[in-house]
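Quick log. Single chain, no ligands specified.
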Amino acid sequence: MPRRSRAGRPRRRSRPEPVLAPGLAARHVDWRDAADRARYDAFVRDRLDGTPFHLTAWAQAIAELGHRPHYLLAERGGAIGGVLPLIETRSPLFGRTLVSNAFAVYGGPLADDESTHAVLDDAAWALAGRLGVRVVEYRNQARLRPDWPVKSDVYATFKRPIHATFDENLKAIPRKQRADVRKSLDLPLEVRVGSDARDLADHYAVYAESVRNLGTPVFPRCLFRAILGAFGPDADILTVSHAGVPIASVLSLYHNGEVLPYYGGGTAAARQYKANDRMYFELIEHARQRGCTSFDFGRSKVGTGPYAFKKNWGFEPTPLYYEYRLGEGAEMPNLSPNNPKFKAMIAVWTRLPLWVANRLGPPIASGLG
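-> predicted structure:
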């Protein structure tokens, strides 16, 4: 298991040519065997670099979108030494890839040593060959494969400790942003946390409007229902309402003392009432009361509004390393909204009536792994 640096991130390791250990082999997780899935998840939870996206619950949720999980584990003598979550994404618009992990911020192999890393790499590439896939993608928090092409200047992630008291968490926010949070705390807003049908419906209504306004197709409702079902008590929805009308909502994941707000947004009215500020501060407090000690604000594209928003909250960006193994003639995928190919579509999407965007969006979003 990698040791953490003082900054709380796994130390980078050089990658000398590994010497493959005898008896070490990779195989697929048996999805029909609850005990096999539990062993895999226990390995992930025991590691400092494990994330909720490495867990089998994520694969179960993403399978609702029609994609096929291929979760690998490497073991020797019955003991797991490494895991690699992969999802085979299939889209008529964007082709086929093997991603670790699809629709997620993080992924990539978790391994005890270089030999295990090499076994998992080889197993992933062999699987790609059998599937006829020419691109394997790892979404890492550190550079793992220096010999692979990489995108390291596109996305950053933002993490910060959660303090022990309300006042400490408020004071940790820079002065200007803290003033907006204080204003939101004084406004007549209602906050609710839950995971029932009402929470799902309110969250979807808010989230669908939010992403439409950004020019992005919305995921189908079944994805959010599947995430709550797969993660159980390790996922919930926090919704902020004004006069009984939901105006901001976020679906969050909890893992090893860390909260990660993953699918969140606000309606047009949210800005007037500082509802997004209220939402994230209430989430920090809710997570603190759950015993969490770290807040993962998720990834943002460098130079965008969400990137600046998180910096305004006092979070410092850390680059993400998305590494690719490419077959002959293959190129690194570019699904970024900054891609000129998508700019016209985004401009049109923001002007669609919400009911039209909600009807057309799910089939498209389901391919945006």
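The two ends are 28 Å apart (CA to CA).
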